[in-house]
Amino acid sequence: MFSQGLRSNRHLVFILTAAGTxxxxxxxxxxxPAIPAMPEHLAGSAEGAQxxxxxxxxxxxxxxxxxxxxxxxxxxxxxxxxxxxxxxLLSLACATCDRIDALVALRFLQGLAASGPAVFAPAVIRxxxxxxxxxKAFGVxxxxxxxxxxxxxAVGVVLLRFGGWKASFIVTAALAALLASTICFVGSMxxxxxxxxxxxxxxxxxxxxxxxxxxxxHAFVLGGLLIFVFGSPFVIVGTMQGVISQFMTMQIVGVGxxxxxxxxxxxxxxxxxxxxxxxxxTLLAAGSAVLILIYAIAGxxxxxxxxxxxxxMNIGLGLRGPPGFFQALxxxxxxxxxxxxxxxLAIMAVSAVGTALLAPFIRHGLTALAATSTISxxxxxxxxxxxxxxxxxx
Length: 394
Description:
The chain is mostly helical. The chain is built from 16 helices and no strands. It has helices spanning 4-8, 10-29, 38-42, 46-74, 76-95, 100-128, 131-163, 167-186, 202-206, 209-239, 244-262, 265-272, 274-297, 304-331, 336-358, 366-386.
């Protein structure tokens, strides 16, 4: 149950929670423009500079499991404030580094702290709103998060130009400190749900076919899309004789389609139900991948065609993303933090493993890229076909 104060401030709490996830995501994209300059200023190598990004990702993956476990034990609000405060302090510490190996170590810890808001945001949203409102809120949150990779690097370029490689860390530290202080001032956060288990575990969730249905189908749909996005620049420019602006156009159209469809899910779930929307979105994403694969096998080599073949995958993700993620939380049976952390970790694993498996074959161009994305989408459809659906009080 909410206090009257929390009810009146729930949109403010949502904004603050969303701001925390955005800051965590920006920890990669805001720093990207400064990576080439780091070896010169930190007496390191180009390889070491790449580890600055890899360490943050590794820290984030580790943090998902850590915060999923300690959140229910120490309290959502207290742990969230601690995570954002640590993120601020570690960001400031990164700006004081004079060696790249020290920066790599700090970036691992910074990534760990940055994962806190991502774990708590879904649980907070579920506690703030009813089922329909939560689905809408997940659509809004996903829309906001989808804009970070597009705009954060541009901001990073400006910061690099006027403040050097340290500027992005200093700005991140300041914003994180301000956010942590504001959450303290607001003074209220949703409590754990009434169904929260006293002793949840990751193993219990991994044994649940219902949870795996929604977590894996979501991870394979989004992971398949990310695999395609990660490999598209090389394929478009390197094997299809296109230009990078064609990739950027494809991305802009895709993100726009995702935002529109994700923000329509609240109405659509009320009208058609979550299960139909999840299935329809998953099939649409898979169909998009299959069409791209058919185009590639048929010898298609016009990058402009990807604009028309890829946007249905984004619409499919937008339609199934918010209700699918919400159902994964519901299937966690009150263990919201662990359910969220495992789902997000699954997304990272699918996209990372898929991209790594694609790497030796990327020179085969669109066929290899589309095949890898299609395999991921087929796994998503299979999860819905063979794993049990959520049945309340069953």
